[in-house]
Design goal:
CATH topology of the largest domain: Cytochrome Bc1 Complex, Chain D, domain 2
CATH architecture of the largest domain: Orthogonal Bundle
Structural class: mainly alpha
Strand content: under 5%
Number of strands: 2
Shape: globular
Distance between the termini: 22 Å
Order of helices and strands: HHHHHHHHHHEHEHHH
Number of domains: 2
């Protein structure tokens, strides 16, 4: 429900109200301008998200968050936005080895998918950020990403009458760091994927064989990639490389046992989120499966569950086929996620 009293009287304010109404209508229904679909589509088998009481999503907050997610005003050069590294058609990744920020500065890590990000118990690949709202601050202030001071972001956005109006409607206050971080988090909590052919049990013979392998004790894939999210959110070294340049979770804990250990990613939409691993160093799903089939490279912190699988070539192909069936085509083309 829009609180129209938040606007002053006059033709400009009237146009703002109309525009806000259009935005929130599109959020409510991804396929049509007006509808009664829920703000957040929760697939069968998914639990409720745990959300701070001060940021319960509503249409106005999601609309503001979406506007800011695609806004390049958050970057120092006004050239990139959140969507630059998290493109909806690529399951909110960017297809690059590592993300690229302002002035072409290369990051150090591969951009993770934002699909089902609202269910994550912590953020960044070492898990050092506890809430989605706090995570929003990271790329804004990171030198190789947005390279922007949040106070300067607020100053810029305060000059945008639409953003200011949306902020007042959504949170009852002018645009500031509080509303920016919470609005973007609200939008990101709607980015839910759970309608792949695997979810709908519409698998080919090869994909079915691959699913059986994936679920079997022989591969033990589900010990790290089980459940509705296809991740257990644990931290592990999977032996993907013989040598690492990224300390991984050790950057947070300073403990040797966490050297080159990273958060286990979800496998949902994995066919469109290449390249893989924390540094985008593996190009294809088939190559990833091959690494696991060989048992990975030796590493003092390699997870004990990573062992040679002994899969035949055809079994590897079936496993790859199943992983490709986790692609949620509706999610990739959902209009509610597009600019």
């Amino acid at each position: 429900m829009l609180h129209l009293r938040s606007f002053d009287k006059g033709p400009v304010s009237f146009l703002l109200v109309v525009f806000v109404t259009m935005i929130t209508s599109c959020v409510n229904n991804p396929e049509a301008p007006v509808g009664n679909e829920p703000l957040v589509e929760v697939p069968s088998g998914f639990p409720a998200q745990i959300i701070s009481p001060d940021n319960t999503p509503n249409a106005e907050r999601i609309a503001l968050g979406k506007l800011l997610f695609f806004s390049k005003e958050l970057s120092s050069t006004r050239t990139i936005s959140c969507a630059t590294c998290h493109e909806p058609a690529k399951a909110f990744t960017d297809g690059k080895t590592v993300s690229v920020g302002v002035e072409g500065r290369s990051g150090t890590r591969n951009s993770p998918s934002l699909a089902n990000v609202g269910y994550s118990p912590y953020f960044l690949r070492e898990g050092g950020v506890p809430t989605l709202e706090m995570q929003v601050l990271v790329p804004v202030q990171e030198h190789n990403e947005f390279d922007m001071n949040m106070l300067d972001v607020v100053d810029r956005l305060s000059k945008d009458s639409l953003v200011v109006a949306l902020s007042r409607i959504a949170y009852g206050r002018d645009i500031d760091a509080f509303t920016i971080t919470r609005a973007i988090a609200s939008f990101e909590r709607t980015i839910i994927s759970g309608s792949s052919r695997a979810d709908l049990n519409q698998l080919t013979a090869s994909e079915s064989r691959g699913r059986s392998l994936f679920m079997s004790d022989r591969t033990n894939c589900t010990s790290c990639h089980g459940g509705y999210a296809y991740t257990s959110h644990v931290f592990a070294n999977n032996g993907a490389y013989a040598r690492y340049t990224d300390p991984g979770r050790q950057r947070l804990t300073f403990e040797s046992k966490d050297s080159n250990v990273f958060k286990v990613p979800s496998l949902r939409n994995v066919s469109v989120t290449a390249p893989y691993m924390h540094n985008g160093g593996i190009a294809t799903i088939a190559e990833v499966v091959d690494v696991y089939n060989r048992g990975g490279f030796p590493h003092p912190n390699k997870d004990v569950r990573i062992k040679p699988l002994g899969l035949t070539q055809s079994e590897c192909e079936d496993l790859v086929a199943f992983l490709r069936s986790l692609t949620d085509e509706r999610f990739l083309t959902n209009k509610r996620f597009q600019q």
